[in-house]
Amino acid sequence: xxxxxxxxxxxxxxxxxxxxxxxxxxxxxxxxxxxxxxxxxxxxxxxxxxxxxxxxxxxxxxxxxxxxxxxxxxxxxxxxxxxxxxxxxxxxxxxxxxxxxxxxxxxxxxxxxxxxxxxxxxxxxxxxxxxxxxxxxxxxxxxxxxxxxxxxxxxxxxxxxxxxxxxxxxxxxxxxxxxxxxxxxxxxxxxxxxxxxxxxxxxxxx
Length: 206
Hints:
Elements: E1 2-4, H1 12-18, E2 25-33, H2 35-44, H3 48-61, E3 68-71, E4 74-77, E5 81-88, E6 94-100, H4 105-122, E7 132-138, E8 159-162, E9 166-168, E10 171-181, H5 187-202
């Protein structure tokens, strides 16, 4: 991770326009077909949420804007990504867990299982400061039509929320929300990310 001069990046204009905006976050909603992800989860005994997080990381890793993030009033450049998941701990409360993204699904799965278990047992967040973290929150017990994230003014990281998937005719559908800071990316980058996410889900190997 290192600080970069915004004027020397493709985000120079966006940095000037959006860094001091009172509400710089944008939220997109998209309905994904997750039928293949469900089949892979069942056949291979892998957690649906883990597979979803891995696909999020895969899609994001192909878009260079994800490696830049406004932090305070600085623009930071990262070499690697992580995907965050919210974990219910042993006290019945929630903790935050950053999973380092790896192209290797087996490695990502092993890290996911180890770190989420560690966080649940210790009731302590697991944070990775040296990676650009994509936040996620899975409300898998609940059917929701959409969600808009909160802008704290502290964390500018992109964030995804989804609820319970639903069956519709011959498809399995999941509505996701994706919130991003306009300094980090434009709407076209976010839309491309969501398209990439659908491709990653649809191309999972059973």
